[in-house]
Design brief:
alpha/beta, about 10% strand, globular, two-stranded antiparallel ribbon, Rossmann fold
Length: about 375
């Protein structure tokens, strides 16, 4: 072997050792806070969760909006369930679960197009129920008493409330929209404020009351749904108490972002939406005839397998973060029932549970992203 060949061999051997060291060296990749991606949302061509009418609506809408598809889907489910009313429900033992959904959309900034998604939902629901549009929407939560007053009963004497709030409310549907969810969270921290307690009771059973001597008010069979928008920077410092007392786990959390850039804006195609909205009107008329909802035999078998998985504890997670998953079974079944109604079914089928589970997986991914990863 010549001297030149020996030198080339030594150089080659040196380069090989350098490459081996690089492979053994741990690779640390720090992702800037604002650059973390949102959980991957299912393709619009997938069967779940964009199944049936909801899938058809999204396939028409998404090319014409910058909004996140999960932001539209989640707010639509909450809105249509509230518009339908309190009739459809499922039982867990003696407890009735009505289709009340609390949705929280979290973005890194206002550029996540959360309100744009809500505007799309209202555009779809426009004209289906004029009473709901005119009288059953509200915002500006500040106290539990104020919320009860919007869906109040008659007083104990059987006469209308005489506390200055006006007569008893006959339509107990209320769709609450808080595009600045930070404000109610701040209000809840004030001593004596009952808003958090009332929201929890309304999610559970649709019943709440004020225990005061003068002019007590109460509501029963209320059907109150809530949609809130907030950025992650606003959410984290203001939710500490609500994570412990159980309000936070009554929300379905979705981390959302802008889906695309449309410099010239977007306009929903009215001609394509018209037949879908006609289908939606038929869905509402059908759903209002439905009472207790059951699972089919095949859906029951699937639910038994999923139930223990949803209740499974994860000790590696922080306890306050793990608490956000405590009501997973109720959330999944409520969503499954709404999806079944969109299919004009009073019985929950396998595909409806799978669709709801796909949305719940988005919630779990969002919880991890919102409440855990910012500390890594």
């Amino acid at each position: 072997m010549s001297k030149t060949q020996k030198i080339h061999g030594l150089i080659s051997n040196f380069k090989h050792k350098q490459r081996a060291r690089k492979l053994r060296r741990p690779h640390l990749h720090v992702v800037p806070e604002g650059a973390r991606p949102a959980p991957k949302t299912p393709s619009l061509t997938a069967k779940y969760p964009f199944y049936g009418l909801l899938g058809d609506l999204l396939r028409v809408i998404m090319p014409h909006t910058e909004a996140d598809q999960m932001a539209i889907a989640s707010q639509f489910l909450a809105g249509i369930a509230n518009l339908i009313g309190r009739g459809p429900h499922f039982n867990v033992g003696p407890t009735e679960h009505h289709l009340v959904l609390y949705i929280a959309l979290v973005g890194t900034s206002s550029r996540a197009r959360k309100t744009t998604a809500l505007d799309v939902v209202f555009e779809i629901l426009r004209g289906i129920d004029e009473i709901w549009e005119a009288h059953c929407q509200a915002g500006g939560l500040s106290s539990g008493e104020g919320l009860i007053a919007r869906v109040r009963d008659r007083d104990q004497s059987g006469t209308d409330d005489d506390d200055g709030e006006g007569p008893a409310v006959t339509d107990k549907r209320l769709f609450v929209v808080e595009t600045e969810l930070a404000q109610p969270l701040i209000v809840m921290r004030r001593p004596g404020n009952t808003l958090s307690t009332v929201l929890r009771r309304l999610w559970d059973r649709g019943r709440a009351e004020t225990l005061v001597k003068k002019n007590p008010i109460k509501t029963t069979d209320a059907h109150v749904s809530l949609v809130g928008h907030i950025t992650r920077d606003e959410l984290l410092p203001n939710l500490k108490r609500e994570k412990k007392n159980g309000l936070a786990n009554r929300f379905l959390w979705f981390f959302v972002k802008r889906s695309k850039d449309l410099p010239s804006g977007g306009h929903l195609p009215a001609d394509e939406l018209a037949p879908l909205i006609l289908r939606l009107k038929k869905v509402v008329a059908f759903a209002r005839t439905v009472g207790e909802m059951q699972r089919s035999k095949k859906a029951e078998k699937l639910w038994r397998r999923l139930y223990s998985r949803l209740l499974e504890e994860h000790p590696e997670r922080a306890p306050t973060v793990e608490k956000l998953r405590d009501r997973a079974t109720a959330h999944v079944m409520r969503m499954a029932c709404v999806i079944a109604l969109l299919d004009m079914k009073s019985t929950v089928m396998v595909q409806h549970i799978k669709a709801a589970m796909a949305m719940w997986e988005q919630v779990e991914a969002s919880i991890d992203l919102i409440f855990t990863r910012q500390n890594r």
